[in-house]
Amino acid sequence: MNLAEIQAELRLQKLDGWLFYDHHQRDPIAYRVLGFAPRRHVTRRWYYLLPAEGEPVKLVHRIENWMLDELPGERRVYSGWGELREHLRRLLAGCRRVAMQHSADCMIPYVALVDAGTVDLVRSFGVEVASSATLVQYFEARWTPEQLQMHLEAGRRVDRVRRETFEEIGRRLRTEGVVQEVAIRDFVRQRFSDLGLVSQDGPIVGVNANSGNPHYEPTPEITSPIRPGDFVLLDMWAKLNQPRAVFYDITWTGFAGAEPPARIVEVFGVVSEARDRAVEFIRSAIGEGRTICGYQVDDVARGHITGRGYGEYFTHRTGHSIGEEVHGNGANMDNLETHDDRPLTPGICFSIEPGIYLPEFGVRSEVNVYVGEGEAQVTGEMQRELVAIR
Question: Which domain holds residue 53?
Answer without folding.
Answer: 3-140
